[in-house]
Design goal:
binds magnesium ion, alpha/beta, Rossmann fold, 5-stranded parallel sheet, 5 helices
Length: about 140
């Protein structure tokens, strides 16, 4: 699917899943102030519910790896089964020392990953690059 031209008023929508309230606040502030619409959930189970709903439009998923109910790997593997989400990029946020999970995330198709604590500027740069907005 072609990306809309940058001069349109279509705001890109990002689904964010993280169980830590302060991370959600940081991400919401960062993404909202950068011109994205943000849909925020606390767990991978909620993220998968949203993704299964074909009426919801998303341009990118940003997911934590460690979450209580369904984790980031569950999001990736569940997403792979959704025909209507084919090609939707997923960026994974990991804590330090989760190298095995990082490798699994990449194997499951993660577009990119960042280690917490992440630099907001770096994260935004990666997102823009993945969405083809890099200047
Ligand atoms: Mg977590």
């Amino acid at each position: 699917m072609a990306q809309p031209p940058r001069d349109t008023q279509v705001r890109r929508r990002i689904l964010v899943a993280d169980d830590e309230p302060h991370i959600r606040r940081v991400l919401e502030t960062l993404l909202d102030s950068s011109g994205f619409d943000v849909d925020m959930v606390c767990d991978g189970a909620e993220a998968l519910q949203r993704l299964q709903d074909a009426s919801l439009r998303y341009d990118l998923v940003l997911t934590d790896l460690m979450m209580p109910e369904r984790d980031g790997l569950d999001v990736l593997s569940g997403l792979a089964e959704l025909e209507h989400r084919r090609g939707l990029p997923v960026v994974v946020l990991t804590a330090k020392g989760q190298d095995a999970d990082r490798a699994r995330a990449v194997a499951l198709g993660a577009a990119d990953f960042l280690t917490k604590p992440f630099s907001p500027k770096k994260l935004l740069g990666r997102i823009l690059q993945i969405l083809g907005d890099e200047t």
